[in-house]
Design brief:
Blueprint (H helix, E strand, L loop, with lengths): L65 E5 L3 H12 L3 E5 L5 H18 L5 H10 E4 L10 E4 L5 H12 L7 E4 L6 H5 L8 E6 L8 E6 L5 H13 L3 E6 L6 H4 L1 H12 L5 H10 L7 H8 L1 H14 L10 H8 L43 E4 L13 E3 L10 E6 L5 H13 L3 E4 L8 H17 L5 H11 L6 H8 L1 H15 L8 H12 L5 H7 L5 H17 L13 E2 L33
Parallel strand pairs: 1-2, 1-4, 2-3, 4-5, 5-6, 7-8, 9-10, 11-12
Antiparallel strand pairs: 6-7, 9-13, 10-11
Helix pairs in contact: 1-2, 2-3, 8-14, 10-11, 14-16, 14-17, 16-17, 17-18, 18-20
The protein binds nicotinamide-adenine-dinucleotide (NAD).
Amino acid sequence: MVGNGATGSGTESETGAGTGSETESARSAGTPGSAGTPESAGPAESAGSPESAESTESAGPLAGSLVGVIGAGTMGAGIAQLAVQAGHAVAVYDALDGAAARAVEGIGKRLDSLAAKGKLGTDEAQAAKDRLTAVDSLSALKDAVLVVEAVIEDLGVKQRLFAELEDIVDRDCALATNTSSLSISAIAGALRDPGRLVGMHFFNPAPLMPLVEIVEGLATDPACRDLVRGHAEAWGKTTVTCRSTPGFIVNRVARPYYAEALRAYEEQTADFATIDAVLRESGGFKMGPFELMDLIGLDVNLAVSTSVWEATGYDPRYTPAWTQKEHVAAKRLGRKTGRGFYEYGENAAKPVPSYEPERQQTEPGPVGAGAFSLYRSFGRTATSYGDGRILIDLALDPDNPGTAAIAPAADTPDHVLDEAIAYLQSTGKKVVIVEDVPGLIVTRTVARLINEAVDALYRGDADEDDIDTAMKLGVNYPRGPLEWGADLGFAWACEVLDNLEAVYRDGRYRASPLLRKLAHADRIMDLPLMQQRALSFERASVDEVTKAASAAEKAAAAHRTQPAARPDGPFYERPPVQPYEPSRDQPRDQRHDDPQPHDHPRKDQP
Ligand SMILES: NC(=O)c1ccc[n+]([C@@H]2O[C@H](COP(=O)([O-])OP(=O)(O)OC[C@H]3O[C@@H](n4cnc5c(N)ncnc54)[C@H](O)[C@@H]3O)[C@@H](O)[C@H]2O)c1
């Protein structure tokens, strides 16, 4: 793999099945409720538009040779710019009259703009423009060493195109498709020589996004795959290699990020802005799922979810959410229509998360005052423990005091909850109270992301490093899901999922067989579980754990080992503690000083 140093660009590029042109870039958009103030979703070095990609001119494997780009829309134009900046002659073809010429003109302007900003030499820009042409027939691609197809997401259209192209180009010309959701094997099925087709999945905007997924179909010739990968790397991209499975790596492993937020909303856990804030400020994600879907386009995001769901035989892990379908049906598609989960435009109110007002800590005095216990979520509700406990959601950014999302049980006295809030606020955290749903918000999301990544590994879709790299560069996650698994404990993730599955019983939270195996290994090796590891972030690689798993399984078969003790203790306990013991003889609403069960107001959408 080769990196171009353009780390996490902040753009979430959801690749749309059939609606790709509606995909938007995180860079060009404003914050919800704003009139479009640019606010990067990513690190400070994020650039502003495709034109900000600096020169990537490099002596690629076949620099100077002809690259054909078919389809002159959003992606085709970006890919052509990349190829020409890398030193290739580039011919752009589009079936729509004038589309290729318009794309060439647009690329020329971007090259001029780069030169004006000093990011590209004037001569270099001119030479690149001279190497770029719009062509009006496929036969003009006859001498190409590589053809990248970026036409509409339609299997029949792509198959017909490649079948025609196969008769035009040389036998040595590699054929690549930028499809985001179609099977490479299916597209290649239309070729006499299916071995010459490879998936070359760019992210939008192509000149800027650092990742390319190199996707192998059943018949893909490894030499052809390596050639295409070599081109992508010579163009400055980091590549990951994967099998042609629904959603490839990024678009599949990322599904839970949206799905769990949507389910949490449907369960009235919190409103959109609060769920987004918790995932950003406690989870450490660059953008919350709702603001991200607004940016991507709800229709594009839904199309990807639906395509993965259908392609996996309606696996309940990917069932599209009713809330999203309803928004799409109502044409609330996100920024592009001025309204999605949030409203945009000058007069739109900026959505505000429901942070708790300041509380004061009380001095321990009367029996029980000042006592509270915070427990980590293991995927059960606080109420299910029957001891009035308060759960605290997973926090993944130890350096940032951030936000603590807590859920009191139905029988947590209000004064106990107030003490917990006051304590957390005294440590510099903002506090939000969420409904007591299983797995809260970050906990269930991260456990599912780990499971998706482990399952991709289990099925041999990609290797460990490529999965984590893809998620960090393709969707800008702060860490790879397998790194999280190793840090937090696969046993923790598996336990969270098992507890969720026990409640929902819909197959959505079923643990991958490999996750279960890794969880056994965690327990047998007596690895510290997440209470310790969540805070220390020490990394054990999946590889190490997998190797240890085999050894541990043998040992376990020889003599049954007792699983290591679960960390059932509280995450934080404030002394002196007079444990809260509700009397089982009294009716629930008379068990404590404040007779009212904690009341969570319905969180309406902003
Ligand atoms: N937009 C994204 O974020 C994104 C990201 C990754 C991959 N993709 C994939 O890239 C491909 C293109 O997406 P896009 O967003 O650039 O689409 P787009 O709609 O912007 O452009 C598609 C272009 O293909 C042309 N076209 C249609 N049929 C053709 C044919 N038979 N021959 C030649 N040209 C033809 C159209 O005229 C149009 O100019 C799709 O497969 C999409 O899934 C899109």
